[in-house]
UniProtKB/TrEMBL annotation:
One of its GO terms (biological process) is proteolysis. InterPro entries: Papain-like_cys_pep_sf, Peptidase_C48_C. Residues 1-193 form the Ubiquitin-like protease family profile domain. This is Uncharacterized protein LOC127748320. It comes from the Eukaryota. Pfam families: Peptidase_C48. One of its GO terms (molecular function) is cysteine-type peptidase activity.
Length: 193
């Protein structure tokens, strides 16, 4: 996704342990932290990092160990990095793209009247992203009703797949990120996805 609307992303900072706040770490300190965080003899489920303002983003020692050589990086690390990129001060990350975190449950591609667009369901925030290269404001009632219907179906599927999932009482909130507009009438699938 490119150029997310400012209202849909919030800047959050990474929580720093009180003993480390304001302290400049030298190479020895960094190495000691790395050894502690990846020590396989210590509790694997111990929280070693948490993301301020995002309660669902925590890294336990087991997650950090996936960063060791010849290991598969797990989805918690990817989700953390996506969140970090998305709130970065870097112009490249702020303006050029949005990293879709793995907390997105799935994508639903739709084509009606020869126009393609994509729904993406974000589990943690319980919201529906509508990526539509032709979106220019509020939709008519038919389109809004269809978006609500798709949201309801997605929540019903989520409930079946994840027994702990609690559906929203009303419609899923929908967000319409700014996606590039096609310059012709046939590239909507490429631009919206």
């Amino acid at each position: 996704m490119t150029q997310m609307e400012k209202k849909s992303t919030q800047c959050t900072s990474i929580k720093v342990h009180p003993l480390l706040k304001g302290r400049k770490l030298d190479k020895d300190d960094e190495e000691r932290l790395r050894r502690w965080a990846t020590n396989g003899l210590l509790e694997k489920r111990q929280v070693v990092a948490s993301y301020e303002g995002k309660q669902h983003l925590v890294l336990v020692r087991e997650d950090i160990c996936t960063l060791l050589p010849q290991r598969w990086v797990n989805s918690n690390i990817v989700q953390w990095m996506c969140s970090t990129f998305n709130v970065s001060e870097s112009l490249r990350f702020r303006d050029d793209f949005y990293c879709i975190p793995p907390e997105i449950l799935w994508f639903v591609l739709v084509c009606i009247d020869r126009h393609w667009w994509l729904f993406a369901f974000e589990i943690a925030q319980k919201r529906l992203w509508v990526l539509d290269s032709m979106y220019s404001g509020e939709y008519n009632d038919d389109r809004s009703n269809m978006h609500a219907y798709v949201g309801k179906i997605i929540e019903d599927i989520a409930k079946v797949l994840m027994s702990a999932y609690e559906p929203t009482e009303n419609d899923l909130p929908r967000f319409y990120p700014s996606v590039p507009k096609q310059h012709n009438g046939c590239d909507c699938g490429v631009f919206g996805v």
